[in-house]
């Protein structure tokens, strides 16, 4: 089964390109034929001349990024983008969500959906659609939201996963919080699940774990691609009997998104080291899993700087109802977790630490809350990788900050005229704020 | 790549405009030594018969022929097609009403035609740049009439106006009238205004001349590097006002650099308006440019880069006389050119933030752009555009000068004689200016008051 990705805006296209690089390198690298073939089938279309063409649609409202991507991949010889799989305009969206959603989106709907349709038709069987975009600018966020809506209307029975990149908290675009609020509130209705990477977090990984001195967006994008690739590459589920999972997105959804109010997913992938230290690093499953579990409950995104003081609350005695009093400060409660293990001796890994009910919210039985996939094939040159895709309170604080800042700005109605002139009213803003406050409230009460 | 059209109106507008074309050509030929037509050039220059010296996307308007004739006889004549020039003979007599109403209606069709032609030559028209002065008759009156036309004919295209404001000792007695009448149009019809005060330009020029003559060791200014210098450009010897006009031309060069050259963080012109204008009428941005010159002593270490950021926020580098540090910042944009990384940018913003008072709802109100090509003669440069309440003081001074004349009804008959002009125009203009000042004042009042976060919506659980 195949996945079609839709890359939207500058960020979506840049991250998307790195993602296909990672996947192609990973699949080529391995000596496991079955894994390679499964990965190829999932992400690439093989043409008559044995070329690998990415199952991807590239959309942007200005041409520079897409042209650079196509040129670069054309040269590499390992894979390329389809000749007619891209669409760009000249103007850009001016960092304005309303311009993207109300003007560019509808204007180019037909052309864009045609390209998507063609890509979907190339798939023998569609596993799902992954839309990649940022939330701070105008195209990824605004056009991206509109396109997601079109995808939902055109493919009502397919799984749609939105991968979002959240901007640096200290600001790249002044109106980024407005654009983010509008995007998230709409996607919550349209998307099946929303997988988030934050620039701030990934930046820290680059600085502290990978020791990169002058961090560029390219470094950040490579880390995001590595993490996203490690989730989407083939794996074996508990009951798949040695055959790689044919429905990865569907399984991801059913493992993690059991309630429509809870759709925000985050990813942790360890270990993450600089390529120069890789040769000297030795990792064991117990070590990795211990760190990963603490990262989950203490809400840390990296193996360094974990707060080991945070402990899981003790369980109430049998028979009594677990109430909110079991929540401790600093403790990250999960709704559901998916653990993916890739690499050597994967069957020896002891994962019971992730199954304990104290990690999870009381209203979901712990055995439904935890799932695991694994494969003995190592991922992207790491002998062992442990990946945790988590539906938990991790994103609560960043989301709350984002909404708070946007609300403060909205209270003075600053910049609102820039949105109303394209058709987004104050009412629309209020609706978006209300939706997100609801999401914040739901996650707070886990 | 997107294109822009430059519309230069009146004597000042055309003189500044010409300095701009001159310097732009110098910049592009410097970058493009082989003289091959490239993408960046297309940003302004239309390709006619694949010649390098192609026609420019410009419209030149003046109601007396002196300046435009000089252009047609000068070395830039190759660049302009005679249809791009709209002229008359007698000028506007420093009378806004004549420029706006008389010439405005007489030349309306011709102007609209010419604008349409320029727009049609653009693959993708993103912005109109209007250059004019406020104190005279043509630039001020006809210029603002053109602004209205641009809004009517091309409502979706951004309008950025560079306006040169007269100094208090301006020799045109009626300049306060002309300026205030023009202000109303700018407030209503422009997307962004970059006000420039003649006095600031004079101060900067004097400072540079002083530096180059002082002969202090280690302070010799590199040839060609002063932004007042037009050396190496197409036109010949420098004329008076050239130095001042060069500064304004450099302002335009920097603001358009992202559209003309590549960079790791592009800042489109429509993004400038989007991020810097939180309320429609408050669109006056304080420009400041650095460096103003480069010292020849190359042994000075690269502390210069951080110094550049500090300078951008010093009063010596501003193009209007105002005090942003003691007023309130609503938003600020930094356009950096040259070999500067994102990390340098972020580091300097962190360093400067504590000294700059930002409005409570926009504490992180910075918009940034990185263009990899520096200006000629420099390794890097920085243009800061600040939406700051300090412009209020410039406007209040203007209002005072206006009131002094208006109270005595001095010279008003010259205006009221003009068809289309009435007493009401004056009262509306001054009232528009007053309410603009009031809007800035209200924001100022929030400055030292600690603002609590707005109460969040309460969700029923």
Automatic annotation (TrEMBL), chain A:
**Function, as annotated:** Acts as a positive regulator of hedgehog signaling and regulates ciliary function.
**In which family does this protein belong, per the annotation?**
Belongs to the tubulin family.
Q: What is its main location?
A: other
Q: Per the record's keyword annotation, is Nucleus included, yes or no? A: yes
Q: What is this protein called?
A: Tubulin delta chain
Compartment(s) of residence = Cell projection, Cilium; Cytoplasm, Cytoskeleton, Microtubule organizing center, Centrosome, Centriole; Nucleus
Which Pfam family, an example, fits this chain?
A: Tubulin
Per the record, what is one GO cellular component?
microtubule
GO molecular function terms attached to this record:
GTP binding; structural constituent of cytoskeleton
Q: Tubulin/FtsZ GTPase domain spans which residues? A: 40-240
Q: Which Gene3D superfamilies match?
A: Helix hairpin bin, Tubulin/FtsZ, GTPase domain
What is one process in the GO biological process aspect for this record? microtubule-based process
Q: Which InterPro entries match?
A: Delta_tubulin, Tub_FtsZ_C, Tubulin, Tubulin/FtsZ_GTPase_sf, Tubulin_C, Tubulin_CS, Tubulin_FtsZ_GTPase
The scientific name of the source species is: Oncorhynchus tshawytscha (Chinook salmon)
- Is Zinc given among the entry's keywords? no
Keywords, alphabetical: Cell projection, Cilium biogenesis/degradation, Cytoplasm, Cytoskeleton, GTP-binding, Microtubule, Nucleotide-binding, Nucleus
From TrEMBL, chain B:
Where the record annotates domain Tubulin/FtsZ 2-layer sandwich, the positions are 265-400
Q: Which PROSITE patterns match?
A: TUBULIN
Which InterPro entries would you find in this protein's record? Epsilon_tubulin, Tub_FtsZ_C, Tubulin, Tubulin/FtsZ_2-layer-sand-dom, Tubulin/FtsZ_GTPase_sf, Tubulin_C, Tubulin_CS, Tubulin_FtsZ_GTPase
Q: Provide the primary localization.
A: cytoplasm
**Biological processes, Gene Ontology terms:** microtubule-based process
Q: Does the keyword Cytoplasm apply?
A: yes
Which keywords, in A-to-Z order, does the entry hold? Cytoplasm, Cytoskeleton, GTP-binding, Microtubule, Nucleotide-binding
SUPFAM superfamilies per the UniProt record, alphabetical: Tubulin C-terminal domain-like (SSF55307), Tubulin nucleotide-binding domain-like (SSF52490)
Which stretches make up the Tubulin/FtsZ GTPase domain? 42-263
Q: Does the keyword Transport apply?
A: no
**What's one GO MF term for it?**
GTP binding
Q: Where in the cell is it found?
A: Cytoplasm, Cytoskeleton
**Which Pfam families does this entry report, sorted A to Z?**
Tubulin (PF00091), Tubulin_C (PF03953)
Any one of the GO CC terms: microtubule
Q: Which family does it belong to?
A: Belongs to the tubulin family.
Question: What's the protein called, per UniProt?
Answer: Tubulin epsilon chain
**Species for this entry:** Oncorhynchus tshawytscha (Chinook salmon)
The primary gene name is: FBXW8
